[in-house]
Amino acid sequence: STKDQGKFVPSEKVMQLRNKLMKFMEDYIYPMESEFYKRAHSTSRWTIHPEEEKLKALAKREGLWNLFIPLDSAARARELLFEDMSHGSPGSSEELLLGAGLTNLEYGYLCEIMGRSIWAPQIFNCGPPDTGNMEVLLRYGTKEQQKQWLVPLLEGKIRSGFAMTEPQVASSDATNIECSISRQGDFYVINGTKWWTSGAMDPRGRQIFLHLNINSNR
Taking residues 134-158, what's their average pLDDT? Predict the structure, then answer.
């Protein structure tokens, strides 16, 4: 019975999503891996493979979209963006943009399946750096910021970049960050150098998230 299940036993809902995801991987992702690999190692590597957009549309229809979004983040975005959603149907297109209502633990069972192919996460709109950038907007973005930047990301219409790595420091440790930001009058001034910016070359890129040190005197 459900009450006898341990904390780490997937629920029926998660198992249904997991089975659907595994079938999608077997039917569509694995057969395309060699094609995606060739594209990534050709002169067309920064162009969009037409099959990718078709698979993304199919993933949306299958309800395998934005699965990474945590429950609390979805609740905040729902309140800010879709005030009248409570009067609509649970399966509305707006509701589907906010994921499947999973906890981080539940998502882990699905993330493990997606991780079997380097190409899979972006097909389900669950690939970096977009996931982390969307979570920042979900948790801390204003209503205006969410409408301008978050909604197109949730829809998969645009992609984003993430600038953390710096040439002079071990940037995987965020306490090493040297690039700084300071306010000067009505403007913000950024000082520093970033490289290896994830997502910068994607033609769908419309925003870059900078990892900065707000205390330039540190």
Answer: 91
For 60-110, the three-class secondary structure string (H helix, E strand, C coil) is HHCCCCCCCCEHHHHHHHHHHHCHHHHHCCCCCHHHHHCCCCECHHHHHHH
Left, alpha or beta for 66 (phi > 0: left; psi -120 to 50: alpha)?
left
CA angle 65, 69, 71 (to 5 degrees): 125
Output the six-digit token pair for 25.
């991987």
Distance in angstroms (rounded) separating the CA atoms of residues 191 and 158: 27
Inter-CA distances, 144 with 2, 10, 135, Å:
42, 37, 16
Rounded to two decimals, the pTM is 0.81
Concatenated DSSP letters of 103-147: -HHHHHHHHHHHTTSTTHHHHTT--TTHHHHHHHHHHH--HHHII
Please name each of the domains of the chain with its CATH number. 2-156 (1.10.540.10), 158-218 (no CATH)
72-121: per-residue pLDDT in tens?
899 888 888 876 444 444 555 667 789 999 999 999 999 999 999 999 99
Q: How many CB atoms lie within 10 A of CB 201?
A: 10
